[in-house]
Amino acid sequence: MENKKASLTINDLREWIERYKKDLLDIETIEGNKVVEVLTLRDEINDLVQKLEQKGIDLSVERSKLDSLDHLIKDKKEIVWKKLKRSIDPSRYRKEKSISPEKWWWYLDNLIKEEKRQYRNKWIKRVVMGAAVIAALYVIFTYIIPKPPPYVACIEKANELLEDGKLNLALEIYKKAISVDPKQGSAYLMAGVIYEFLGEKEKAA
């Protein structure tokens, strides 16, 4: 087997990349066990690329094609991951095969978690910016129409919790602000935004 691997050439690599491309284009219709084959093929491509480059062969064109194809997996990572889990236990499989995180295609769960984390952070930043604007407007209006200090304290505390990503705690403080001064709209607005993010749209209305 090792002799066969040693004799593999750039033509074999190109053939494997074409197979990889064909499989990825059908990724939404193939079964879970086929996904294992596709990811195993990606392993073999990765190993062959390293061997050929160690021989000094220029694979810039092949690497470019491979990067483009890898984006198909990344774009459909949720689909691929669900299909993979139907066929095997990914965590156990990775451990049994000693698959390192460098082979990211076996660790799509990490990519999914990271994407969610980035989305959450982006959402929090936007909400915090919005809260800052609302707070600034509130301060401006307090010069004209004085508001009770407890309400201001609640809003500021809730904004701090929101910035730290503590959505449920922030929500409770916004609700407290509403009870302190039901006539003010900013706490209602921020509570509604959090309910929307938590998927409780009926409470956001």
From TrEMBL:
One Pfam entry name: TPR_8
SUPFAM superfamilies, per database record: TPR-like (SSF48452)
Keywords, alphabetical: Membrane, Transmembrane, Transmembrane helix
Membrane-spanning ranges: 123-145
Full protein name: Tetratricopeptide repeat protein
Species assigned in the record: Aerophobetes bacterium
